[in-house]
Specification:
alpha+beta, 434 Repressor (Amino-terminal Domain), two-stranded antiparallel ribbon, 4 strands, binds zinc ion
């Protein structure tokens, strides 16, 4: 099995909340302790065995593989250049830097970390929108994933109504984004 990312851990937490399950209930269901599950959901994937993670994935129907890679995430390589780089995410849900996916009928966007030079202003390199450098809801520092670990709110708010077929919408958008990235 490929390594479970911190982001995937948060996605499991989202999926559990969406099902209205408490950690104790889910832990009993997959046969682990509540504390291990809690640490796993908090971003420590090694707290659960591979087998338990597979059971969780099956039970919560969370895919264990990332559907779209994030080639636009620029790693800081420790060189002097990284000092001039500001990391943030683009709050525009139509922007190709935000990849939509659906968990139990709710639409989420996984923002790519966009980098911008402070001299040019912290703007999205894809669409020009001003980048958010902190959680727009509570001001907490950014974590990986679609939702703020501090307050649980979505970083990118969907502008479309969730009454439409969000699964079809997310699939269509992901295909568009893949094409867009291939063209670049
Ligand atoms: Zn953008
Ligand atoms: Zn927050």
């Amino acid at each position: 099995m490929s390594r479970v990312s911190r982001e995937l851990c948060l996605r499991f937490a989202e999926a559990r909340r969406a099902k209205g399950l408490r950690q104790t209930e889910l832990a009993a269901q997959v046969g682990c302790t509540q504390s291990a599950l809690s640490m796993f959901e908090g971003g420590q994937p090694t707290k659960l065995s591979e087998e338990t993670v597979k059971k969780l994935a099956e039970f919560l129907r969370v895919p264990l593989v990332e559907e779209v890679s994030s080639p636009m995430v620029v790693p800081t390589n420790g060189s002097h250049e990284s000092l001039n780089v500001v990391h943030g995410f683009c709050p525009n849900c139509q922007c190709p830097s935000n990849v939509p996916y659906v968990v139990d009928g709710r639409l989420f966007y996984r923002p790519s970390r966009t980098v911008a030079s402070p001299t040019g202003g912290p703007r999205c390199t894809q669409c020009g929108e001003l980048l958010e450098m902190r959680c727009p809801s509570c001001g907490a520092p950014l974590n990986d994933g679609a939702c703020c670990a501090a307050c649980g709110s979505r970083y990118v708010t969907p502008s479309i109504t969730e009454e439409i077929d969000v699964v079809a919408y997310a699939r269509m958008r992901r295909e568009e984004i893949i094409q867009f990235r291939e063209l670049k």
